[in-house]
Design goal:
Elements (H helix, E strand, L loop, with lengths): L1 E15 L3 E8 L3 E7 L18 E8 L7 E10 L2 H4 L2 H17 L7 H15 L4 H15 L20 E4 L4 E4 H10 L6 E3 L1 H12 L2 H4 L6 H17 L6 H8 L6
Parallel strand pairs: 3-5
Antiparallel strand pairs: 1-2, 1-4, 2-3, 4-5, 6-7, 6-8
Helix pairs in contact: 2-3, 2-4, 2-9, 3-4, 4-8, 6-8
The protein binds zinc ion.
């Protein structure tokens, strides 16, 4: 076992036995890791952190063999608890969604400083009162892009026709269809029709793909386009998840996203 120190977002914690905690972290240097923190529930005062979800900490842990059980975390020191985010229920609900999504969609122990930076930027967006919904759309697009899951939005996935208009998004086919192909696929195999995707929505997706997070802080989007994007990106995320996320159920319950 070797010791390692890294920055880590708390994704999720579980009580373990009498006094310990199991935690899923997304770390800067090791990707997603699972750790056990012994005795923490008895002695929270020893730590500068209560290990709350989406808090950013510096952790010291003893690494086990790759893929083996749990790493033992012996020090946790809070860097940023994102208090501003915790004081705003909508921002808090979206921050919970970000870490929930990473916890369920990202493979264990695959380091990506890009993904770590994305989560950090997205949390900063929420902390600086950027629109949580818009932050979520940007987060989803960038996350899919980094994981190689981004749907095809430039050309019809069947006939390769560039920039089709109108375009229909087919979740299971991983991208957009032109009107012709949409008509044929809907009639041919009885598939459900794709979701109409406006030119504005496609332009927003392309803009997000090629811009840095810093450039996107003040990007504007109309309400209709925002709703379209929410529908397709949420549906696309669900398609890649084993089950519905609790954070999504909460967002729906609070009316922060459409059911
Ligand atoms: Zn086509």
């Amino acid at each position: 076992m070797s010791a390692a120190k890294t920055e880590a977002f708390v994704l999720k914690t579980y009580d373990y036995r009498d006094t310990s905690l199991l935690a899923h972290f997304y770390t800067k240097d090791f990707g997603k890791i699972h750790g056990i923190i012994k005795g923490v529930r008895d002695a929270r005062y020893r730590y500068g952190s209560t290990l709350e979800p989406f808090s950013l900490n510096e952790i010291l842990f003893y690494r086990r063999r790759r893929g083996a059980d749990l790493h033992q975390v012996t020090q946790v020191e809070v860097i940023n608890n994102f208090q501003e985010v915790r004081e705003d229920l909508e921002a808090l609900a979206y921050a919970s969604y970000f870490v929930d999504l990473i916890n369920h969609i990202v493979e264990i122990e695959e380091p990506s400083t890009g993904l770590f930076g994305l989560l950090k930027d997205a949390m900063q967006f929420l902390a600086t009162k950027a629109s949580p919904r818009r932050s979520a759309r940007i987060f989803e697009v960038k996350l899919f892009e980094m994981l190689g899951l981004m749907p095809e939005i430039r050309a019809c996935v069947i006939c390769q026709d560039l920039g089709p208009s109108p375009a229909y998004f087919q979740v299971g086919m991983g991208g957009i269809l032109c009107q012709n192909c949409q008509g044929r696929s809907a009639a041919g195999d009885g598939q459900t029709t794709g979701i109409f995707l406006s030119r504005g929505a496609i332009q927003f997706l392309e803009h997000v793909r090629r811009s840095s997070m810093k450039e996107l802080l003040n990007v504007k989007v109309s309400q209709e386009v925002g709703e379209e994007l929410e529908k397709i990106l949420r549906r696309f995320a669900d398609f890649h998840l084993p089950r519905k996320l609790h954070s999504v159920t909460f967002l729906e319950k609070m009316g922060y996203i459409a059911r």
